[in-house]
Amino acid sequence: MTTSAPNRSIEFRNTTLGATIAVLRDTEPVGLADSLHKMLGGMPDFFNGEAAILDFSGITKAPGRVDWAGLLSLLRRYQLQPIGVRNLPAELSAAARQAGLAILDNLELRERPASETSRTPPPAPAPKAEAPPQPAAPSAPASLPNTLFVERPLRSGQQVYARGGDLVLLAGMSNGAEVIADGSIHCFGPLRGRALAGAQGNSKARIIATNFGPELVSIAGVYRTFEKGIPEAIAGRGAMVRLNDAGNAQTIEIEPQQLD
């Protein structure tokens, strides 16, 4: 199950306000339902109650009407909570307000990669005694990639995002956990849950695991889910996930690896 960006009727982006932007290219619930199923594998808890802003800038031809009840019901099925709309044709604004949506065209939203922060807030830093100012440590050159190491197993509900580089899981992750990296993901242990590499479009990123068994993998926005089970040749074994963009369609390929 793979979906390349040009064929999607809906696309999701995150903002600094914590709301997900759902960029619509179609307003018909039937067509959107098919796209969401292909993208997310029908997993009803993918978004876990996140607020959503519906962006109509991707609509090439303005619809005469929008089935707001069907559209909102579909998004709520995936635990998205629509709160407002952007770039909606003026003639449709009154119906959107009646459906309980705010018009947010004047709200400035800066987009960021999905899941930039963990759902679990970090602990507050302990108070520190005042100390004389110290010389600032020299910063690393911007050209050097970052690698984030996670030494403990990730449990269900936990999220980790490796901004600008690779993510290395030294103890694996459980079902219900989610990891995202702008670069590649390396998992030395059970790979469960959702793993998304190349989050900002790096099609050369990889996902490499010593014990393969995720719910969903993604490279540069192209997804594959495993609701029918992991293929026997790679289930519980070493595997590498990469993006094959040969030809007109991008596809996810998974290759067995001898990683013992």
Write the layout of secondary structure elements.
Elements: E1 10-15, E2 20-24, H1 29-40, E3 50-55, H2 68-77, E4 80-86, H3 93-98, E5 102-103, E6 111-112, E7 146-150, E8 159-162, E9 165-169, E10 178-181, E11 185-191, E12 194-197, E13 207-212, E14 216-219, E15 222-225, E16 239-244, E17 251-256
Parallel strand pairs: 2-3, 3-4, 4-5, 7-9, 8-10, 9-11, 10-12, 11-13, 12-14
Antiparallel strand pairs: 1-2, 1-6, 13-16, 14-15, 16-17
Protein model, in words:
The protein has 260 residues and is mainly β. The protein contains 3 helices and 17 strands. The strands form 3 sheets. Strands 5-4-3-2-1-6 form a 6-stranded mixed beta sheet. Strands 7-9-11-13-16-17 form a 6-stranded mixed beta sheet, with no helix packed on it. It has a 5-stranded mixed beta sheet with strand order 8-10-12-14-15. A hairpin with a 2-residue loop joins strand 14 and strand 15. The protein is elongated and about 60 Å long. The two termini are 29 Å apart. The relative contact order is 0.12.
